[in-house]
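Sat 14:20. Reprocessing the chain from the morning session after the first attempt stalled halfway. Input below, unchanged.
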Amino acid sequence: MKRIIRFLIILAIVLMVSMHSNTNRVEAAGKYITIEEFIEYIVTQMKWPVVDVSKQPYIETAIARGILKKSDFSDYKEYLTRTDAAVIANRLDEYINQKYGYSQEVYDFLRDCYLYENTLYYDLNGKFFPKGETDQTYDAHNFGNDVAHAILLKAFPNDSWVERGLRTRYEDVRERRGDVRNTFVMIGVNPNIERNFFGIYPFDEDSLIVKAWNTIKDGDRKVKAVLDKRISDIKSIPKGKQEAVASIVAKGIIKGYSNGIYVQNREFRGKNNITAKGAKDVIQKVLNPSIRALISPDGQLIRTTKLPKNASDYEYILECFPNRFYEMDFDFINIVGFKEGTVRRSIYAYPIEVDYDYLYENHYKYQFELDMDKYELYDKALNQVEKYIEHIFNVDYRTVNDKWKNGLIYTLDQYYDWRLSGWIDEYIEAIKKNHVIVECEHVAIEPSTLYKCIGGLYVRVYVKYKITAKNINAPSEELLYGDMTYLKGVENGKWRYGYYDIGIGSCYSDGGHHWGVNTLNSISDSMFLMSK
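Finished this time. Tokens:
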């Protein structure tokens, strides 16, 4: 009898497990989407004709269109992952919209060019320069006629330069001592002036070529930023699929999941299966760019609702920063006469005004060199801010040394100032006496907050940190390095955070322009505390 009861109990358990498993399979079948179903949805939405005689008509159609590759999957009845949805969606987007709206040929050609004063400079290592040839063996006019003119005329037949045509010649970029650093094919407009056999005019500012170059440069920069910094679990995605995932995130087609406030990357969860609804939403965003999420130039998700009261002061508001961060006053409100409206408008500018064109005209124009990346000076400045914060908010009296000191010095704009060494030595001496340890847990720099105050630029950062010391009530400048440092309410060994506007600028030294944090930058809690 006991054996029969035991058998019946086991049988009941098996039946319950089986029913639960079947239920889960049914729920999964209703929630998720198979690869085959996803492809059918795409083909149907695209209204591509399907060959019915095929065993897998939708799959064969997608392969023929280049949306699928035969090697992608071994079983089309498996559930679709978020990674594979991104890869397929990116192929579809490029099938429809090409590379930022341009053919692969135009994309490849302009990607290999620098644009300097609205004139193109083609890199001799580029895809279209004849292999094995050099500036000594190949006529630049041939490159202009056979390559540049053929590609650009086909893409931009109605552009402003077409009537006069193109002219090309070789152009050397030299080191300051005169040595040739690089050689390019210079490409511009034929001046069509009698006896002007060598002159090359720049393209018009509103030329479609100039617009295309900037679109491609900005698009590639955004994808690279997402790939390098904006996907926290990018390493869990197969290497061959990472760029496609970054591209689909950069286009605002898949957003990912928040990692929390002030965290400037998001989790993609590429191994997870994507729901049927989610997969269809992805395709609808491919087909309708107007419903995509907005993404900042450096690859971050932009917030469009519940904005700060002064949102109009900024080009965009990021999803991961709270309104309070943006609502903190700018330094220029403390200029005498600002509130009365008597301050000259030229000595300050809101973030919405400080775009790339503003920076180029007011700061970069006379610092730029032909073979510089468009954002080289901009990125250098923000990288210096990050290094500066990492130095002053990570210092230990037990381990501070010349490496820390010299590293801090080089983050400053006037790093050559002979007084700096003495100022930092005084700080080091003070923290050793007081056993000061400054630890930083998190830093977030928000590029859209860049603004002008008097002669300098400022960018806002969030810092979470703590300070430990024998005497936490010591003067602020003996706890944290800076000029006129002001910290309020510091508790010994307890985490705190603040918003700080960091001044940045440049100086000419050692034959070049050096960008860095203002040598006399101040870390002050005053604005932050007033914003609470």
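The radius of gyration is 29 Å.
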